[in-house]
Amino acid sequence: MQQALLYRAGLAGPLEAELLALLAPFALTETDTAQGWYLTLQDSALVLRNADLPKQGDILVDFASGAATHRRKFGGGKAEGIAKAVGLNKKPGLSVIDATAGLGRDAFVLASLGAMVTLVERNPLVAALLADGLRRGARDPQTADWLPQRMQLVHLPALEALHSLPAPDVVFLDPMFPPREKSALVKKEMRAFHDVVGADDDADALLAPALALAKHRVVVKRPGYAEFLAGKKPTMSIEGKNNRFDVYVNAGF
C-alpha cells in the first residue's frame, strides 16, 4: 500500500486551515513534490490524483454531483435492489454499518432513503476523500438538511470496527473482488483502489463478526459471477444487472 501523501502546494487560501484540521486524523504525509498517488485541492474539493498518469483524471467524493443527485431522485428509491436487501422497503430509519465504504456511493443511497449509516474506511487516502465529501455535502443545499445526521465516518479497519462499534440493525459489506481476466479495462476508480488500497485479502473473515454484530441482517454485495463470501450460502439473493446482494437474515426480522 502506497504512503498516504498530501500535496501541500494544492492547499492555499482560507480552506487550508479547515482542511488540515479535517485531515489530521488520517496521518497523511505532507509533501512539496507530487508523486504517485497523492491528495490535493481542486476547485475547493479534495481529489486523488496520480502524478504519473495524467490521463487518469481526478477521483473525489461528491454527494451532490449530477450522478449522485440523479440516482437519489430517479434511481428507484426503496424499490432499488440495495434498499430491498437492507430492508429499507419495509423498515425506514434502519441503522447500517457500511464496513467497506470505499467512495461511499452505496452508503449515500441508503442514507438518502432514510438509513442512519456509519461509513467504515481503513485506507487514509480514501477516508480523507470521504471526510471531504461529507464536509461539502453538509453545506450543499441539496443535502445539507439530512446528510450530516445520517452519514458518519469511522476511520478503522473493518475487522476492528466490527468488534468495537455498537450493534446496528444491518451490516453492509462490499469487499473488492478481482475482475474477470478477460473483462473490459478496469475503470479509473477501480484502478486507483487496487493501486492505493490493495486487495481485500481479509474479506472472508468479515462475515462471521458481521453476523455476530448485526441485529437483523448482513448484506454482501458481490459481482454476479462471484462465489458466496466465506463460502456461506445466504438466506436469499437479490439479483441486479451486474451485481447481486446476498442477504443473511437473523431471526425476528
Automatic annotation (TrEMBL):
The keyword Transferase applies. Its main location: cytoplasm. Specifically methylates the guanosine in position 1516 of 16S rRNA. One of its GO terms (biological process) is methylation. It is found in: Cytoplasm. It holds the Pfam family SAM_MT. GO terms for molecular function: methyltransferase activity. Belongs to the methyltransferase superfamily. RsmJ family. InterPro entries: 16SrRNA_methylTrfase_J, SAM-dependent_MTases_sf. S-adenosyl-L-methionine binds at R105, D106, E121, R122, D174. SUPFAM superfamilies: S-adenosyl-L-methionine-dependent methyltransferases. Signal peptide: none annotated. Its EC number is 2.1.1.242. This is Ribosomal RNA small subunit methyltransferase J.
